Amino acid sequence: MGFFDLFNDEETQQKTQKKAREVDRTADTEFAAEGAQLDLREEELDINKYRVETGNVTLHKNIVEEEQSVDVPVSHDQVVIEQRAVDRRPADEPITAEETVHIPVTAEKIDVDKHTIVTGEVSVQKRPVQETEQVRDVIHKEVLDVGSNGNADIIKED
Q1: What are the per-10-residue average pLDDT scores of the chain (158 residues)?
Q2: Alpha-carbon Rg of the chain, whole angstroms?
Q3: Residue among 78, 86, 125, 83 nearest 105 (CA)
Q4: Cα distances (angstroms) measured from residue 148 to each of 46, 94, 145
Q5: What is the 3-state secondary structure (H, E, C) of the chain?
Q6: Backbone φ/ψ region at 5: left (φ over 0), alpha (ψ -120 to 50), beta
Q7: Residue burial 37-72, b: 16+ Cβ < 10 Å; e: rest
Q8: What is the dihedral of CA 91, 94, 95, 98, to 10 degrees?
Q9: What pLDDT does residue 2 have?
Q10: In which element (H, E) is residue 40 found?
């Protein structure tokens, strides 16, 4: 194969492509004696939505310790002994035996217990939030291209 054969080969390819285009045109051309209809078509976007998991939320209760100090008033008995001098007067009873008096002495002690109360409530729901996203894509549509040869009188009505 020589240098000039490359140009001949390219020229042959161009002729083949031109013949293929001519064949395609005649295949798409419809000849009608009186009238014809040509449908113009275009693409429309078909929008579909579907759900995907984008994350999750976990609620968990932790137990924390807190030392609490409470001042509680407590009471106890205190024994006061008073001894005083009296006027000397005669006694009705003779001294016979020892005598003892018992006085109970008390004090308050603290007993601590615990009970559980509800201090709050957590409620969880999901709610839909509407947003708008813009979707872009290229669509194709057919437009009418009117060509004429010779002296053709053309009226275009919409």
Answers
A1: 56 61 50 79 94 95 96 97 90 86 96 96 95 94 88 82
A2: 56
A3: 78
A4: 37, 159, 10
A5: CCHHHHHHHHHHHHHHHHHHHHHHHHHHCCCCCCCCCCCCCECCCCCCCCCCCCCCCCCCCCCCCCCCCCCCCCCECCCCCCCCCCCCCCCCCCCCCCCCCCCCCCECCCCCCCCCCCCCCCCCCCCCCCCCCCCCCCCCECCCCCCCCCCCCCCCCC
A6: alpha
A7: eeeeeeeeeeeeeeeeeeeeeeeeeeeeeeeeeeee
A8: -90
A9: 57
A10: none
Q: How far apart are CA 56 and CA 140, in angstroms?
A: 41
CA dist list (Å): 79 to 85, 103, 104, 131, 139: 20, 9, 10, 82, 105
- Quote the pLDDT of residue 26: 45
**Six-digit token pair at 152?**
């053709």
